[in-house]
């Protein structure tokens, strides 16, 4: 696991954006895994800017998002469909049929999970998966206790996750209780993983990721088993790191 330590949120976003642009240049038909949350918003803003300036094209890019709430319309401002359109997808030159998010509104959610897995397989593999991290170590919506072998599945969200995400809703009662998420096994099949971590509220989380044990109780710890992971973390997120060199 390689750690890139940067000053602040802006520098994290810039470093991530340059990293992704470089990757996109190397591949003819890149398949990129995308994440939601406040952490990648700055990265997406920079990618939109680069696309507008003509420095990068997304015409050959295929995307797969990690997760989506269930029983929420894609047009609902709190859906991850809406989030992705607003922050990235509506503003870049990517063909719509190359964009994939789980359909949290599907009649048969189990079938939707299988179909999502099939679509990823058909695309080959995810070349680069962008990840954020929940305070409790969740990746995608894989909460503590999720098997490392899990595939795309329906999850019941932890109360702590619903609370953390309630800042986007009018009240916690409106936060969905379930979601569809790519499984940990699915995420681990990506050729490469880029994790972004920012802010003091993630300082204990980052310390546990780097210095804690590999355990299903802390989902992100699985990344120690992956051969190509880069973590970009800002000073505030690094503020509680033990074993500083
Ligand atoms: N499902 C998403 C995760 O993919 C994300 O990493 C996490 C952290 O979000 P934030 O970046 O807002 O802290 O929130 C949500 O639960």
UniProtKB/TrEMBL annotation:
Cited function: Catalyzes the reversible isomerization-deamination of glucosamine 6-phosphate (GlcN6P) to form fructose 6-phosphate (Fru6P) and ammonium ion.
Name of the protein in question: Glucosamine-6-phosphate deaminase
Which species does this protein come from?
Answer: Ureibacillus acetophenoni
According to the entry, every stretch annotated as the Glucosamine/galactosamine-6-phosphate isomerase domain falls at 9-229
Taken from the UniProt entry, a GO cellular component term is: cytoplasm
Q: Which reaction does it catalyse?
A: alpha-D-glucosamine 6-phosphate + H2O = beta-D-fructose 6-phosphate + NH4(+)
**Single GO term (MF):** glucosamine-6-phosphate deaminase activity
Named in its record, the pathway it takes part in is: Amino-sugar metabolism; N-acetylneuraminate degradation; D-fructose 6-phosphate from N-acetylneuraminate: step 5/5
Identify the gene encoding this protein.
nagB
Q: Which family is this protein grouped under?
A: Belongs to the glucosamine/galactosamine-6-phosphate isomerase family. NagB subfamily.
Q: Which Gene3D superfamilies does this one have? A: 3.40.50.1360
Keywords from the named record: Carbohydrate metabolism, Hydrolase
